[in-house]
Amino acid sequence: MAVQKMTIAKALNAGLRAAMEKDPKVLIQGEDVGKLGGVFRITEHLQKDFGEDRVIDTPLAESGILGTAIGMALRGYRPVVEIQFDGFVYPAFDQIVSQLAKLHSRSRGAIKVPVVVRIPMGGGIGAVEHHSESNEAYFAHTLGLKVVFCSNPTDAYWMIQQAIETDDPVIFYEPKRRYHEKGEIDVDVPPARDLFSANVVRQGTDATVACYGPMVRTCLDAAKVAEEEGRSLEVIDLRSVSPLDIDTLTTSVTRTGRLVVVTEAHSFVGLSAEIAAAVTERCFYSLESPVIRVTGWNAPYPPSKIEEHFLPDLDRVLDGVDRALAH
Amino acid sequence: MSDDVVADVTRGQLAGGVDHHESTLRSRSRGPFDGGPDMIQLLDPEGQRVLNGGAQEYAHHIDALTDEDLRGFYRDLVLIRRFDLEATALQRQGELGLWVSLLGQEASQIGCGRALRPQDHAFPGYREHGIAWCRGLDPMRLIAMYRGVDRCAWDPKEFGFHTYTIVIGNQVLLGTGYAMGVQRDGDVGTGDPDRDTAVIAFMGDGATAQGDVNEGFVFAGVNDSPIVFFCQNNQWAISEPNERQMRSPIYKRADGFGFPGVRVDGNDVLATYAVTKEMLDRARSGQGPSLIEAYTYRMAAHTTSDDPTKYRFSAEVEMWKLRDPIARFKTWLGHEGIADHDFFVAVDAEADELASNVREATVTMGDPEVADIFDNVYVEPHRQVEDDRAVQAAYAASFDDEGVA
């Protein structure tokens, strides 16, 4: 059956499986990805089916995981690395920034490093500290990396395969609080758009709402409520934050005249700031209001009992829309 | 070597009255720069064949060498030193932005480099000019990098020699991963000498403090990967001596990671060759990783930006001059009748010619194109990079317009 109902978690698992079946050079490595199938079960059963040489349980050392993945890529493999939680990627930061991102340019093109780094990101699951971070700005700021987010099962299934096929290194963010949201996937219909194009997930006329990852669901819910209030919101799932599909954004904002950018990450020096600046530069004479940012507060991620007050929710998105439309 | 010199260095009473306050935290269990009884040595500083530190296990690799091979080692040693001295001179004359001298470490690198097979892969730091030489890389590629006109723009696949690595220790993990790839290709333990592949990763004594190096040891250990970790202990991490980097000898650390570690006289080209050959063979045959500590000395500054008179005694350098890797090998080759006066003269002439060619090629090297900075940032185009490429091109062209007007 071509159309299957799957969660994002299952879709990622199926996408990884499809990539491994298609290309014997695709490997997975990370902590607990083998017998356990990863702490979120994204790699469940893959070691059983593809063997320990292709699904590698590593020592508990993130720099080692990244550095050896790069080494295997130099030998011709296409490693997919799992970082267990967003807040655990920092020991690997040096390898990602100094080697993964730069080897292609450092070698003036002689070397390609097609490594995918999967990172379950963001909050909303009641986790202990270091388990709820949105650290995409660090990586988007690093040239040489591409940084993408999946937000729904269909994208999860196809984007992970597209990321693996990409010859550039890709940081692949997964919205961990959405892992169990379901959707229908037609696994026989190839993806409509390339990995780095944004997707207008809802059309509207009064304001553009740009978001990615876990915020896409929040923004779509907000747009539904706004419609009941007589406001027509256009929602854009950016999908890729590096490169940024600026054309899709400017086309929409030129029409709506208003932009609200929504991210879980706090605003200061973040993607929301970059998007606001880039759109303002290009759409200055079309804008009816300043670009509004609705983001996590400029404060470290809070204890989980109060995280709902930190994360942008439907009401805060609508408040942002109100502020944009007040002009 | 003079025992008096050793004693004086220990007491810190030399070199222009530099105060030498012993920290109460320092507890040296060895004399300064004494490689100890475990150090494998086949040729002593006087040029005598010896079998020190269990060297008999490795000596057969030397017996298998021809006189031609041995003369080749000598030629390599002399040429790479001459190249290095010329590069230092070029930096002093403003032709290079920086140079990282290998002076004193020639035998560590040539012995090691000549033990590699074509299919092997080396992951260097930034001082491995002798390894680059042995892998057939044009030394001008190294010059171009340090002149600031190019990156590490060689194809590692062509030379089995990967990019120079400035961030200390990164390359050890890359090499370890590469070795894991070799295992997955089945290019280990087949018995086919043209197929079985080893990886060698280089580091200095300072790098052994890095997490990446220790993680590389862990990953290689648990995977039994075909890699040799080759540490040139040149005694100094810029200004910091071994005592500020470690509390146990480098080669002994291998025990804790579950593979063998050996210390070899890094100024003895026969020993570095024999030991590296043994460990590479071991890796290729599927017996897993090993650690070689080549005990040597950095005769020059850390780089041309460094001033070692601020932190070490000139007598220490004088003492190591007596252990010079080339002098001892030349003595032995002459004594054994493997090479004669004419050969040595010819090698010197070849070295001078190399230096002259390097100088000429350096000073005539062109600058890169500014627009090239946007190339190879990504394999597939990236919108924001391409946007800036266009903006920069338009900005540059605006000056052309002014010129025309």
Question: What share of the residues of chain B lie within helices?
Answer: 40-55%
Order of helices and strands of chain B: HEEHHHEHHHHEHEEEHEHEHHHH
Q: Strand percentage of chain B, roughly?
A: 5-15%
Task: Summarize the helix and strand pattern of chain A as letters.
Answer: EHEHEHEHHEHEHEEEEHEEHEHEH
Which chain pair shows the most residues in contact? A-B, 47 and 44 residues
Strand composition percent of chain A: 15-25%
Regions with little confidence, pLDDT below 50 for 5+ residues of chain A: none
Give unreliable regions of chain B as ranges: 1-21, 23-32
In whole angstroms, the N-to-C terminal distance of chain A is 50 Å
* Level-2 CATH architecture of the largest domain in chain B: 3-Layer(aba) Sandwich
Main β-sheet, spatial strand arrangement of chain B:
3-4-5-9-8
CATH class (first level) name of the largest domain in chain A: Alpha Beta
> What is the arithmetic mean of pLDDT of chain A?
97
Q: For this structure, what is the CATH homologous superfamily of the largest domain in chain B?
A: Thiamin diphosphate (ThDP)-binding fold, Pyr/PP domains
Descriptive overview:
The complex is a heterodimer of chains A (327) and B (405). Chain A has 327 residues and is an alpha/beta fold. Chain A has 2 domains: 3-186, Rossmann fold, CATH 3.40.50.970; 199-325, 3-Layer(aba) Sandwich (Rossmann fold). Chain A is built from 11 helices and 14 strands. Chain A has a 7-stranded mixed β-sheet, sandwiched between helices. In chain A, strands 9-11-10-13-14 form a 5-stranded mixed β-sheet, sandwiched between helices. A two-stranded antiparallel ribbon of chain A has the order 1-8. The model of chain A has no long low-confidence stretch (mean pLDDT 97). By secondary structure, chain B is α/β, with parallel strands linked by helices. In chain B, the strands form 3 sheets. Chain B has a 5-stranded parallel β-sheet, sandwiched between helices. Chain B has a two-stranded antiparallel ribbon with strand order 1-2. In chain B, strands 6-7 form a two-stranded antiparallel ribbon. In chain B, strand 1 (41-43) and strand 2 (49-52) form a beta hairpin. The longest helix of chain B has 26 residues, at 67-92. Chain B is globular, with a radius of gyration of 23 Å. At the A-B interface, helix 3, helix 4 and helix 5 of A face helix 8, helix 9 and helix 15 of B.
